[in-house]
Design goal:
There is one protein chain. Strands 3-2-1-4-5-6-7-8 form an eight-stranded mixed sheet, with helices on both faces. The radius of gyration is 20 Å and the shape is globular. It is built from ten helices and eight strands. The chain has helices spanning 13-24, 38-46, 55-61, 74-88, 102-114, 166-195, 198-243, 249-262, 280-293, 296-299, and strands at residues 5-9, 28-32, 50-52, 64-67, 93-96, 118-125, 136-140, 156-161. By secondary structure, it is α/β, with parallel strands linked by helices. Helix content is 55%, strand content 13%. The protein folds into two domains: 5-162, NAD(P)-binding Rossmann-like Domain (Rossmann fold), CATH 3.40.50; 169-299, N-(1-d-carboxylethyl)-l-norvaline Dehydrogenase, domain 2 (Orthogonal Bundle), CATH 1.10.1040.
Length: 300
């Protein structure tokens, strides 16, 4: 292995899962838990991470840094890492694995390589790793080959092209489809619930949209707890679409929908706290209460 120590920022659901499997495959997996929540600390410990005291120590020890964050945090964290690189003279490989637009990926490349390190753009497709099922890391850019050794060690590596931004574009388009569909369905059902005909509408959908409805119906229960993370991703989708001449308004509206969901008490629950017995209809009723109390200017 050319990498010995891998830093992950941060050990949340995906980052923690990736780190767990990398540790099982012989890597020394580290992170910095300064100012992090008790939940994040517990998750890092359960996943076998080694905590280091600060960012300069992290970049000095790491051969590879995997940034796996809510997309709204990607630029800020890259800036902190870049300052630590400059201060220490360390030159780790920095892989941005976030749902950012290709333009943001290029900006991140300038920040990291301007500090003297090596940058790889990665788009993650799939769920957190588990035995027999690993997410796909879509790598791109001139240094993408450096991540090849991780293949089969908790992630599957797919080099998708020579240009920075191509990996991000794959992730953005995947999120645009899945989470955009979730947002549209949820908005429609919230309107139906507000006007009192949800059951009538839902009775008609299975005839033409059975598979889709089942999938999205299950997603609605989880959406409030994920909504804060999805806001930034939908903004990045809108930016990406606009950059190639496509309308970005639908995904800007999706971001607004997730802002609304994020105001619900249900948004304070982590994934493992979601009541498995709660139905999508019960979720919609709780969200309508938030909708009816929230001025439009707050979310739009």
């Amino acid at each position: 292995m050319s990498f010995k120590t891998i830093a992950i920022l941060s050990p949340g659901n995906m980052g923690g899962g990736v780190g767990r499997f990398l540790g099982r495959n012989g890597y020394d997996v580290i992170t910095c838990l300064a100012d992090r929540s008790d939940f994040t600390r517990r998750n890092a410990e359960e996943c076998g991470f080694r905590d280091v005291p600060d960012m300069p120590t992290l970049v000095a020890e790491a051969d590879l840094v995997l940034s796996i964050l809510p997309p709204a945090e990607a630029v800020g964290v890259a800036g902190v890492v870049a300052e630590a690189i400059k201060a220490t003279g360390a030159v780790p490989v920095y892989a941005d694995c976030n749902a950012t637009s290709p333009q943001t990926a290029i900006e991140l490349e300038r920040v990291i390589e301007g500090a003297g390190a090596v940058f790889v753009d990665v788009g993650i497709i799939g769920a957190t790793p588990r035995e027999g099922s690993y997410p796909e890391f879509c790598t791109c850019g001139p240094h993408a080959h450096l991540l090849a050794e991780l293949h089969g060690r908790g992630v599957n590596i797919l080099n998708v092209g020579p240009e920075t931004g191509q990996g991000s574009a794959i992730k953005i388009c995947n999120g645009a489809w899945n989470k955009g569909a979730f947002a549209l369905y949820t908005a429609v059902m919230l309107a139906a619930e507000h006007f009192g005909f949800t059951e009538h509408l839902r009775g008609r959908l299975p005839e033409s949209q059975a598979g889709t409805v089942r999938k999205i119906d299950a997603a609605v229960v989880r959406l409030p707890s994920l909504s804060g993370r999805y806001i930034g991703e939908m903004e990045q989708v809108a930016e990406t679409f606009a950059s190639v001449g496509l309308p970005g308004g639908f995904h800007e509206a999706s971001a607004d929908l997730f802002r609304l969901l994020n105001l619900s008490p249900l948004a304070r629950q982590r994934r493992e706290q979601i009541d498995p017995r709660r139905t999508s209809l019960e979720t919609l009723k709780a969200l309508v209460e938030v909708l009816e109390k929230t001025p439009a200017k707050v979310i739009g």
